[in-house]
Amino acid sequence: VVVVVVMCWDAFLMHIGGIPAVVCCCFLVDGVVAVIVIVVVVVVCQGVSGCIPPPTWSWTPDMELQLCFVEPCFSPTELFGDCLWRVRTNRSFLLSGLGVADKKKYATVIRELGGYMLEVQSFSPDCTHVVVGYPSRSEKFLAAVASGKWVLRPGYVDACQAAGMFIDEAEYEWTSQYLKTNDTSQSNRLLADSPRRWRQRLGTSQAPSRGAFHDWSVGLVVDSNTMSGFRRLLEAGGARVVYDRLTEAVWDVEQLTHVFVDSKRIATLPRELFDTFKTRNVLCLKTEFIADFLVFETRPDPNATKYHVKP
């Protein structure tokens, strides 16, 4: 107010001194605009420095503070309301086996709580959590299991929304006790229990943070339309995919520990290669072995007839 009064007085004196009134008015308008800009900057700076009360969530080590105005999707209400500060967590989410409406709902909640949403159709190693509608042998589910990620029921996101923050995951991890009451399949029970089993196993000295397939070097002989999915699954579990071309002419078998073959592609492998695999103790198996390795409580026998690949 004092600044405006002083500018008005200066403009009056300038007019008395012979300066045209139009020039004085322009000077006054420019001054008022400058004052408004200064006031806005001061208000925002005061908010940043702590005049706006801090949020009331609990702090965890995976959180970092960011300002709302660096997120272009936020509304002016969020910018100038009581949430000037925004919590950004290191949680990155994938959604799988959910309807369109549920995906949209949960994605919105995750972003509002400060998590990252990975909008991809296939598994991404950048995720930390996978929210799954129901256990299945899908790429996202199996790859999350192979890499020891959190595989959670949708109720986790609902509970986080009610709490206004990300909460502990353990209570919402998929296990067989949460299957439908009429789902009595033993294979489905094993599948539902596999996320916790592998997450705990990979957190021990058996294979620390390296994945379920960490000691595999793999050759793939599968259809081109499934090649990338198998590769992502194997690499999520720490395997090294050495060969993934259907027309590979010369394979350095000494690099391999496993060769996985689609039944339709058995004929593409030369007969002599099978003899070399056997001589070099390279396991030549059907692709079904990969999922079974993750799902069964005890490791499946690679010599079982169901996995045999015969030339």
Order of helices and strands: HHEHEEHEEHEHHEHEEHEH
Number of helices: 10
Task: Please give the largest β-sheet.
Answer: 4 strands, parallel
User: Order of strands in the sheet with the most strands?
Assistant: 4-3-5-6
Strand residues, percent: 5-15%
Could you list the spans in which at least 5 consecutive residues all have pLDDT below 50? 48-58, 64-86
SS content category = alpha/beta
Percent of residues in helices:
40-55%
- Mean of all residue-level pLDDT scores: 80
How would you describe what is shown here?
41% of the residues lie in helices and 13% in strands. It is an alpha/beta fold. The strands form three sheets. Strands 4-3-5-6 form a four-stranded parallel beta sheet, sandwiched between helices. It has a four-stranded parallel beta sheet with strand order 8-7-9-10, with helices on both faces. Helix 5 links the parallel strand 5 (129-132) and strand 6 (150-152). Helix 1 (2-16) packs antiparallel against helix 2 (21-51). The longest helix has 31 residues, at 21-51. The protein is elongated. It starts with a helix and ends in a 16-residue tail after the last helix.
